[in-house]
Design goal:
This protein is mainly β. 2% of the residues lie in helices and 57% in strands. The strands form seven sheets. It has a 22-stranded antiparallel beta barrel. The protein has a five-stranded mixed sheet with strand order 3-9-10-7-8. Pfam families: Plug, TonB_dep_Rec_b-barrel. One of its GO terms (biological process) is siderophore transport.
Length: 717
């Protein structure tokens, strides 16, 4: 839809558990890069973010277990993109944050600043795979909250089913974004950026303890202001973001953090170019500046509370309210005759409001030689969404003169309405048991989901759709410490996703269900910050929607897909400012049972389009040592290779392989004179060699982003 909408236990028993190292001030200078200094206010699990961070590496994360579990003891694949990596790559959106992670496909829809749209292990995660501080970020229709990467401390990718802890979701996995939080040390940072396409941006991030609070209160204020054009004619990528945060820590055992954000964006209504037959992408941009300003406001307020009744009993509660409002006008080219393009328009006005609450209790104890970490909780999510829409016409576009923005385009009549609400309640229980070298993880959860949808067209109401679903999901995982820093593991996990609607007989669709078998090995080289992982996986999702072979106007929940493959990852910090990431993914994603929407014929055995079968991603940085004549200089480069894929689900055409190169050059002026301490200049280039590439998915093709260069002047204090 995103691609076509513009076209239509005693603590001693836990001796191997890494202790929480609180989030450090973002953007530490290279000389200060190292283990976190322990001056923050982050909680130790359930949305608190990764810990043990050094450079690009992290030792522990709560995302996979909601406890502060070492990554090497987690029975699923987990990757962490740290704040330092986000800074040095100058990440501008969530897709860029995920660009060097294994198992992810982020360029499926080409250049599109409107949405964080990506795939994990071949499954779309846009709507139900994005979490913020451990809470699901609801998204419906075009009301998709955007992540501002400068306001995040880390991005964690959990690959494979996560329903055993989080409820309904994508079988491919989830992405958990950790918000920046107050720290109990005074700091500040300011960025000024300028780039091609008249891109100008200012970032600021400062905070510290509140004076007079006797070390019990801290604040943080983070913000972004951007004014930018894009390579799309007359299309902007403007943003204003402000995120105040406040922490109250009256004692070492109690922490309350308030997290808020307001964001206003102006984006293009479409990023599409007109497609000629046989998957040929023209240079004719579909949008028009006269009717192309997609404006969106989003805001959130919530808290993270933790209280330790003792070293072995911890209570946590995370809450968030989210609102998203957007006006989405667009123009599309319906056909080309000679030098004339016939066009139509659409306007969607959407509002989304959601409430998420997760309450959990963690206990630690021992029974003989076995140590236990027991976690129990209940979470709740509610959202309401409404849409007011209309379709209309636009004057023809003269392809000879490309008279974009020179003609008046009327607003369509708004005569289409839709609204939807959903409530989800989940109860979950997890046991992590350790005996000798064995680590057993057992997770179980039951969800109750109810939803209702109403719609109308030109005042005529449609058929109401109400349904209630319930499902039990879980995970069992086993790790074995074969040697220090070497842990093989295996796991089995299940997932489910409700599907709104009814079949030909009026029966509600049953939820799509899935399961995964994963096995692999994780490694940490002792006394270094070098980690590696290898995983093989096999995911099946069944009861997905397909066209009813007996009534093409209807759907049935009898489809099935299968994703299998393997991933290899290496992350290393060799010293301050010197890091390396490597990721290789082999993916074979196929339809087991499905019907073509184009030919209405079975496409069983076909590969999912737009998702490359093989990807290689490498990014590294090197900081010249103080003894070098080039002291203060940091260089870096990245290579992203995506192998060929099919352009359509009918598998009649192919996308070519593409290799993109990114680069980094930075200089710390303190190397010239200590009085310049804190000043840094940085230049980032994306698609350095300006590779002109396209990608086609489900029969429609998208243009990739051309070469982009952004220069930054940074001051930290």
């Amino acid at each position: 839809m995103l691609g076509t909408v513009a076209l239509t236990v005693p603590a001693a028993a836990q001796d191997s558990t890494i202790q929480l190292q609180e989030i450090d001030v973002a953007g530490a200078r290279p000389a200060e890069t190292g283990p976190a200094r322990g001056n923050g206010a982050v909680t130790s699990g359930g949305g608190g973010g990764p810990s043990g961070v050094v450079g690009y590496t992290a030792k522990a994360s709560p995302t996979a277990t909601k406890t502060n579990t070492p990554l090497i003891e987690t029975p699923q694949s987990v990757s962490v993109v740290t704040r330092q990596q986000l800074d040095e790559r100058n990440v501008q959106d969530l897709n860029q944050a995920l660009a060097y992670a294994p198992g992810t496909s982020t360029d499926v829809f080409g250049f599109d600043p409107r949405f964080d749209a990506f795939y994990i292990r071949g499954f779309s995660a846009t709507y139900d795979g994005v979490f913020r501080d451990g809470l699901r970020q609801a998204a419906v229709g075009l009301a998709v909250p955007r992540i501002e990467p400068y306001g995040t401390e880390a991005v964690t990718i959990l690959r494979g089913p996560a329903s055993g802890l989080y409820g309904l979701g994508s079988p491919g996995g989830i992405v958990d974004v950790t918000s920046k939080r107050p720290v109990f040390a005074r700091f500040g940072e300011a960025w000024f950026q300028a780039g091609n396409y008249d891109r100008f941006q200012g970032n600021f991030d400062f905070g510290g303890p509140v004076e007079g609070s006797d070390g019990t209160m801290a604040y943080r204020l983070t913000g972004v202001v951007r004014r930018s054009d894009t390579f799309l004619p007359g299309a902007a990528d403007d943003r204003f973001n402000i995120a105040p945060a406040f922490t109250w820590r009256p004692s070492a055992d109690t922490t309350l953090t308030i997290l808020t954000e307001f964001q206003n964006s102006k984006l293009p209504g479409t990023s599409a170019f007109y497609n000629f037959p046989n998957y040929r992408v023209s240079r004719y941009y579909q949008g028009d500046p006269a009717f192309n300003a997609f404006t969106q406001q989003q805001y959130r307020v919530g808290y993270a509370f933790e209280h330790k009744f003792g070293p072995d009993l911890i209570f946590r509660q995370n809450f968030r309210y989210y609102g998203v409002n957007g006006d989405f006008p667009y123009v599309q080219i319906d056909g080309v005759t000679g030098l004339t393009a016939e066009r139509s328009t659409g306007l969607f006005i959407e509002n989304l409001h959601s409430v998420a609450l997760d309450t959990q209790l963690e206990g630690r104890f021992a029974t003989g030689p076995v140590s236990h970490t027991l976690l129990g909780g209940v979470d709740y999510l509610h959202y309401t969404w409404d849409r007011l829409a209309g379709l209309g016409t636009a004057p023809d576009l003269d392809l000879a003169s490309l008279n974009y923005g020179r003609q008046f385009i009327p607003r369509p009549t708004l005569n289409i309405t839709a609204n939807q609400s959903q409530d989800q309640v989940g109860l979950y229980l997890q046991e992590q048991a350790k005996w000798d070298r064995w680590i057993l993880t057992l997770t179980g959860r039951h969800d109750w989901v109810s939803s209702g949808t109403r719609s109308s067209f030109a005042g005529v109401p449609g058929t109401p759709q109400d349904q209630t679903d319930g499902a039990f999901t879980g995970r069992v995982g086993l790790n074995y410490r074969l040697a220090p820093g070497l842990v093989p593991y295996a796991s089995y996990a299940t997932t489910f996703t409700p599907q709104v609607g009814a079949d030909f007989f009026g029966r509600a669709f049953k939820p799509a269900t899935g399961d995964q078998i994963e096995a692999g090995i994780k490694a940490e080289i002792p006394d270094t910050n070098i980690t590696a992982a290898f995983a093989g996986f096999d995911i099946t999702q069944s009861s997905i929607l397909r066209q009813d072979p007996n009534s093409f106007a209807n759907q049935v929940a009898t489809g099935e897909v299968r994703s299998k493959g393997f991933e290899a990852e290496l992350v290393a910090n060799f010293g301050p400012g010197t890091n390396l990431t490597f990721a290789y993914t082999h993916l074979d994603f196929r339809f087991v049972r499905q019907t073509s929407l184009v030919t209405q014929a079975p496409i069983d055995g076909n590969a999912l389009s737009g998702i490359p079968g093989d990807t290689i991603k490498v990014f590294g940085t090197y900081l010249f040592p103080p003894s070098s004549p080039l002291s203060g200089l940091q260089i870096g480069a990245g290579i992203r290779y995506a192998g060929p894929s099919f352009a359509d689900d009918e598998n009649t055409a192919r996308n070519k392989a593409v290799t993109l190169v990114d680069a980094l050059v930075a200089y710390d002026f303190a190397a010239l004179d200590p009085k310049y301490k804190g000043f840094r200049a940085q230049i980032n280039a994306f698609n350095l060699f300006d590779r002109d590439y396209t990608n086609c998915q489900a029969g429609f093709c998208y243009r990739g982003a051309p070469a982009t260069v952004i220069g930054s002047l940074i001051y930290r204090w």
